[in-house]
Amino acid sequence: MKLSLGFSPCPNDTFIFDALVHKKIDTMGIDFEVVLEDVETLNQRAIEGIYDVSKVSCGVLPDILHQYSILNSGSALGFGVGPLLVTADDNININQTVIALPGEHTTAHLLFSYAYPDLHKKVFMRYDEIESFVQQKKGAGVIIHENRFTYAEKGLKKIIDLGAFWEEQEQMPIPLGCIVASRSMSTEKQ
């Protein structure tokens, strides 16, 4: 049997799926057709019901739980690893600027909207294009993945750690991502 499997090329995902994809574990006769996509593309594909198994943002779950089940392992929850809102402009007025986000259905967008429910000047782009957008002073941006550790080297400044804001408000870890499987598969395949 062959199942479609979507995940991102970020180091966390490639580590999570390495053993499965490279047959370092017994997959009991299941082969995987692997597709690497950015996180928002994976979220969109999940909304469309494209992949049998996929890594997705927790932010997209309300839109897909009718067709996908969350698997018991592989979720990414944590403290101190959430998205950051950054700028290159010391005089930025957050209420008047455009905010670049890594996708409408991402956890980053969910956390930004949680912290700034009244800000609606948003533009969505691939996560790896946001730093350049901010460096060109086109607006502020929400960065994810490893960029949260390297943004200062690129002359960017943190406005707020959206994950820390969530943690302070909710007293819970940040729900970043999880692995889902299509409900159309039998439970023995899941």
Structural class designation: alpha/beta
**What's the overall average pLDDT, rounded?**
92
Query: What is the N-to-C order of secondary-structure elements (H for helix, E for strand)?
Result: EHEHEHEEEEHEHEHEHE
Low-confidence parts: none
Strand content: 25-35%
Q: Can you count the beta strands?
A: 11
Shape: elongated
> What is the helix content?
25-40%
Give the biggest sheet.
6 strands, mixed
User: How far apart are the termini?
Assistant: 13 Å
Radius of gyration: 17 Å
What is the tally of helical segments? 7
Give the arrangement of secondary structure elements.
Elements: E1 2-7, H1 11-21, E2 31-36, H2 39-48, E3 53-57, H3 61-64, E4 68-70, E5 76-78, E6 84-87, E7 99-101, H4 107-115, E8 122-124, H5 130-135, E9 140-143, H6 147-150, E10 157-161, H7 162-170, E11 174-182
Parallel strand pairs: 1-2, 1-3, 7-8, 7-9
Antiparallel strand pairs: 3-11, 4-11, 5-11, 6-9, 6-10
Helix pairs in contact: 4-7
Write structural notes for this entry.
It is built from seven helices and eleven strands. With 190 residues, it is α/β, with parallel strands linked by helices. Helix 4 crosses helix 7 (162-170). The relative contact order is 0.21. Strands 1, 2, 3, 4, 5 and 11 form a six-stranded mixed beta sheet that branches. The protein has a five-stranded mixed beta sheet with strand order 8-7-9-6-10. The chain starts with a strand and ends in an 8-residue tail after the last strand. The protein has helices spanning 11-21, 39-48, 61-64, 107-115, 130-135, 147-150, 162-170; strands at 2-7, 31-36, 53-57, 68-70, 76-78, 84-87, 99-101, 122-124, 140-143, 157-161, 174-182.
